[in-house]
Input
Amino acid sequence: MKYFFALNLMLVLLSGCTPKTAKTIANENDGWIQLFNGKDIKDWNVKIHHHEYNENFGNTFRVEDGMIKVHYNQYKDFNEQFGHLYYKTPFSYFHLKFEYRFVGQWMKTAPEYTLLNSGVMFHSQDPKTMPKEQDWPISIEMQLLGGVKEGEPRPTGNMCSPGTDVVYKGRISPDHCINSSSKTYYGDQWVKGELIVLGDSLITHIINGDTVLQYSKPQIGGGVANGYDPAQKQDGKLLSSGFIALQSEGQEIDFRNIYIKKLR
Output
């Protein structure tokens, strides 16, 4: 008995942590997968409007200081070059966690609505299926907004639907975007976002630990997306899986601590 106790203790010491610490680490990392390694975006692919697949025009998406940064210092004109950075594999049932903050400059040649505006797309079509002149992926978006004027509410964690529809409050929503119940966040503070996606069933948006929006039955339909291959837009088809992407919409933004847990 003493031999086995000593052996177990030695193994723990060699691992550099106590039994309590080892158990804590195991619980914290249980099932979570790091999508962004803090060093590079080799596991990610780029599609920017007016450009071919995996042409990272202007080094729009880059890694600095352990963050994915969206920057435009190599742009002269925005020219509706809406872009997205896609993780390499699709997901269906999952819990996604990430942090973001609005920083730097807004491209004044971008549409006015893009000020302090970005997003995380999910259930997206494969970027390889997007023609050069397709502006938005057929997908669901967790829209991220920052406060513009003190005292004017501007919630974040909203839902937008380029080329898609969702069921909200018992019916297909007629609106392209649905506001969440989140509070308004100003300046360059870090905000924690979460998505809990159950295939083509219930979807939950969480901001800083609070559930701020729920809807269901994501499906192809609606407008907004343009320049797509018609074969990709089968209106009424439920979306049970797809790709996750970080958005470039004209406002500089940072992302970090991107993790996912498969729920099925």
The longest helix spans residues 2-15. Residues 1-27 have pLDDT under 50 and may be disordered. The chain has two helices and 17 strands. The first strand starts at residue 32 and ends at 34.
